[in-house]
Design goal:
single chain, alpha/beta, five-stranded mixed β-sheet, about 30% helix, globular
């Protein structure tokens, strides 16, 4: 779940937050994500990994192509409800947004006078490819011959739910009046889910959008 954990760190860690959480000193230990990270954040990530991995495997077993991500959307909402994040809005048929509101102290003004972002969106794509998965030895192989998560979108969604878990635990470190929007986009592989999501208002009030793709970490594949 590397992708959005890094983004969650940027929002929750006072060393790196663009939202104006007061900066700390330079003696904090460096974490497993490569940047400044308290040991407590590393421990929180380790605690989230089992549930994020289980979610990824479940989504991998049940892939759905663009604008057909009905079960996928249900599993995402179920997982978010499990961490205390309810509500949200369904957009473009199977897309979804929900905000995490900061509850911490109001952020001080930026020293250079520039405005701080009030809302950062974290994005994950949801759809699978219309193809058959050939790896019959994979214990969480796709259960359908008509779709497969071969581009890592199962991992992107699981990573974003994992990041949401960390952010919910760190809401008191996000200043009041700021929020992080979780943005789950359907149909990235086609016929195209970004435009209808934007037309439906997924970016209204958003200052920045962040997201990364999965990558191999070290010599061995990680789940």
């Amino acid at each position: 779940m590397h992708a959005n954990v890094v983004v969650a760190q940027a929002a929750a860690d006072p060393m790196t937050s663009p939202m104006g959480v007061p900066a700390g000193g330079g003696d904090e230990p460096r974490g497993t994500m490569g940047g400044p990270a308290p040991a407590a954040l590393d421990a929180a990530v380790a605690a989230v990994l089992p549930s994020a991995t289980a979610l990824r495997h479940d989504l991998h077993r049940h892939p759905e192509p663009g604008f057909e991500e009905i079960r996928t959307l249900g599993r995402i909402r179920e997982a978010l409800k499990g961490i205390g994040l309810e509500g949200g809005t369904v957009l473009a048929g199977t897309g979804f947004i929900v905000d995490i509101e900061g509850t911490g102290p109001v952020a001080p003004a930026a020293t250079d006078g520039s405005p701080r972002p009030r809302c950062i969106a974290l994005r994950a794509d949801m759809d699978a490819l219309r193809m058959t998965e050939g790896n019959e030895g994979l214990p969480y192989r796709s259960t359908t011959d008509e779709a497969a998560h071969m581009c890592g979108h199962d991992g992107h969604m699981a990573a974003l739910v994992g990041a949401a878990t960390l952010l919910m635990q760190a809401r008191d470190r996000l200043p009041q009046g700021t929020r992080v929007r979780l943005l789950f986009q359907p149909a990235e592989e086609g016929p195209g889910g970004a435009a209808p999501m934007i037309q439906a208002g997924c970016l209204e009030g958003v200052d920045e959008v962040r997201g990364t793709a999965r990558w191999r970490h070290g010599a061995e594949r990680r789940d």
